[in-house]
Amino acid sequence: MCDTHHKSPHKGKDHEGHDLEHKKWSRRSFIQALGIAGSGSMMLGSNFLTASAPSPLTSAIAMAETDNILILIRLSGGNDGLSTIIPIEQYDVYANARPNIYLPESKILRLTDEFGVPTYMKSLEPMWGEGQFKAVHGVGYEGQSLSHFTGSDIFANTDLSTTGFSGRDTGWMGRHFEHLYPDYLSDFPGSRPEGPAAIQVGNYGSLVFEGEETNYAYVTNNIDQLEQIAETGLQYSLDESLFDSCMYSDQIKFLRGVSNVTNEYAGKIHEAYMRGANQIEYQDNGFARQLALLARLIKGNLGTKVYMISLGGFDTHGNQPLVHERLMTQLSIAVDNFYDDLAFTQQDDKVLSMTFSEFGRRIYENGSNGTDHGKAAPTLFFGSGLNGSAFVGEHPSLDEPNSRGNLEYTMDFRNLYATVLAEWLCVDIPLVEQHIMDGYKYTPVNLGFNCSGVDFPEITYSDGQPTPPSPTEPTEDPSPELVNAIVHKPYYPTDKTPHIYLEMPFTAHVDIQIFNIMGQYLGSVFNEIMLEGSTEINVRERLKTYLASGKYIYRIQVQDQKLSKSIMVA
């Protein structure tokens, strides 16, 4: 590689062209010369290398007073929103537009009187009942692109002027890096975070974590590679002989810096993997394996606050009913298992997941039992931190599509992104608007969490399941005094037996009942007068009914007030 007798117009270091070459060299141009611009990753021989370091955003996230974690779920190909959230009030129009692929009413799980999901997404039903599922209607932007590549870039770089191969080549999670962290590949103390700032599974060219000089995420080609790193701590390094003095020494030193960062974080990932453990059995498919590994890294306290995973196959021009059912079944089961897994360590309320896709699909079916590229589509949010299930925003009208049969957007995607940054990851609003959203003054969306103290517009929360009523939705809202005064939480000692910790600031009659996820009453584990103080209730000891492994709900009734939470039984 460092042979000075190469066949080029400039032979050796002693010539005018050598100096000119180094004046023009930059890390970005070097990556571009290797044909890997925009990926932040490279192949060296058969080894995959990537750099991971903090951007101003990830630095702000790291310094923010929050332990919250964000998981971005890419539905690659353009997810069909009308097969994900069915507008029951517009059902006739929906069915007439799709005579061969519409979902019959018998296959719709009604979550409210206005909206439902396909029954093949029924694994999300308990999450809905427990206040862990929100759907935001009509997400898109003005002049939405119907191109896979341009659409992906716009959702990543937030630049609505992007067309074709033009547009910003940095992402919303990776702005303004070089002037704040010029030595991010060095070994200087504090030049990078102890754990990866972000982890991305799937090297599909997303700009989300891209900065001016490199990609800020620890990127692996696929889940197989990340699993190998997590299990073995396998590290790739460059032979020291490559760093002998030669005309490409600067480039080689850059490669060494990338390798050093990659190796360092491989070890951190392995350590977290060994500390964590899955307590739920996941399905054996690629998407479920991604979430299973993320759960283990989170439970192992890796420290990474942003993850990005993907589920492909949503470009459903043909055979959409079967394809969409398979994909959304995988997603629903895996997401439910993921939050059940995190509940064992009480981390489910610290992890927010959100879906995104490059565009939606049209109202009308095509001639191949599918749908073509369209515009607006829903964004799905999951996690206990949502503090209630709801449909948010205005669903686009099916009666007024544009000339191509597209749903018009009713929610600018940048409002969602900025809200997640400011209110979930607690990044200062001026930083979000100036650097991340490139001057865009966003309108905050009430998603159920609030870090900045901003006033949200009011939204109406769903009333949960039809019948039987979910015990997680009390018939009367607890008074503020009781909510603030009574402390209760599930916890799991070393023998994994579920316990309930209860702390009462006054004497009162307390009734704690157990329900399964279908809302069926199983029995009471505590029904007596409790004096001021605290107590611990062993659920298995107190409940005479046998409890199989899985998720249950306990409801505490004090006077006329009811409080509920989920609890796991191993």
Features:
single chain, alpha/beta, Alkaline Phosphatase, subunit A, Immunoglobulin-like, 9-stranded mixed sheet, 4-stranded antiparallel sheet, 14 helices, 21 strands, 26% helix, globular, TAT_signal
Describe the protein's topology.
Elements: H1 16-24, H2 27-33, E1 41-44, E2 47-50, H3 56-63, E3 69-76, E4 86-87, H4 91-97, E5 108-110, E6 115-118, H5 125-129, E7 133-140, H6 148-157, E8 198-201, E9 218-220, H7 223-232, H8 249-275, H9 286-299, E10 306-312, H10 320-343, E11 351-356, E12 377-382, E13 390-392, E14 411-412, H11 413-424, H12 429-436, H13 480-485, E15 487-491, E16 499-504, E17 508-516, E18 521-530, E19 533-538, H14 539-542, E20 550-558, E21 561-569
Parallel strand pairs: 3-10, 3-11, 7-13, 7-14, 8-9, 8-10
Antiparallel strand pairs: 1-2, 4-6, 5-6, 7-12, 11-12, 15-16, 16-19, 17-18, 17-20, 20-21
Helix pairs in contact: 7-8, 8-9, 9-10
Protein name: DUF1501 domain-containing protein
Pfam families: DUF1501
Region (Disordered): 1-21
What does this protein structure show overall?
The protein has helices at 16-24, 27-33, 56-63, 91-97, 125-129, 148-157, 223-232, 249-275, 286-299, 320-343, 413-424, 429-436, 480-485, 539-542; strands at residues 41-44, 47-50, 69-76, 86-87, 108-110, 115-118, 133-140, 198-201, 218-220, 306-312, 351-356, 377-382, 390-392, 411-412, 487-491, 499-504, 508-516, 521-530, 533-538, 550-558, 561-569. By secondary structure, the chain is of the alpha/beta class. The strands form five sheets. Strands 3, 7, 8, 9, 10, 11, 12, 13 and 14 form a nine-stranded mixed sheet that branches. The chain starts with 15 loop residues before the first helix and ends with a strand. Residues 1-55, 176-181 and 460-478 have low confidence and may be disordered.
